[in-house]
Write a structure and sequence with these properties.
By secondary structure, this protein is an alpha+beta fold. The protein has 2 domains: 79 residues; 38 residues, no CATH class. It contains 4 helices and 6 strands; from the N terminus they run E-H-E-H-E-H-E-H-E-E.
């Protein structure tokens, strides 16, 4: 039986499938463990240890490099998207820093319902628009 080594884990089936496609494009054969369990009930992802991305021992280094590039591209994409104002398309979005007392006060007065509100995370210096 072919022994495989886990090179990464995911909690979402979509992300695991995207990583599998990246590895396949690089010529690395991989298997996903627990993909069907998490696909049926996503709340079980933490219980089963997530979706495990497994490759053969000979491909571990190449798979690790592909995963590093994937996560670097994903992080830079997210950072680039977050800073662009959706209203005026200005690329200088500034992060909004809330004092800790605002969050504590809102939870104490309004309860857990404040967790459902998407607090704005960025603001545009030109049009004063805020977005998350």
């Amino acid at each position: 039986m072919n022994q495989q080594i886990t090179v990464g884990t995911c909690t979402e089936i979509l992300e695991a499938s995207m990583i599998q496609m990246e590895l396949d494009a690089a010529g690395i054969d991989c298997d996903l463990d627990n993909e069907f369990t998490v696909g049926v009930d996503p709340l079980l992802a933490n219980a089963v240890g997530g979706i495990k991305i497994k490759v053969s021992p000979a491909c571990v280094e190449a798979a690790t490099e592909v995963l590093e590039k994937y996560y670097e591209n994903k992080a830079s994409e997210r950072a680039a998207k977050a800073k662009i104002c959706p209203q005026c398309k200005n690329k200088d979005g500034q992060p909004i820093h809330k004092p800790n007392w605002v969050g504590i006060l809102s939870v104490l007065t309004l309860g857990a319902f404040t967790m459902l509100y998407a607090w704005p995370k960025f603001s545009c210096p030109d049009c004063r628009n805020t977005w998350s």
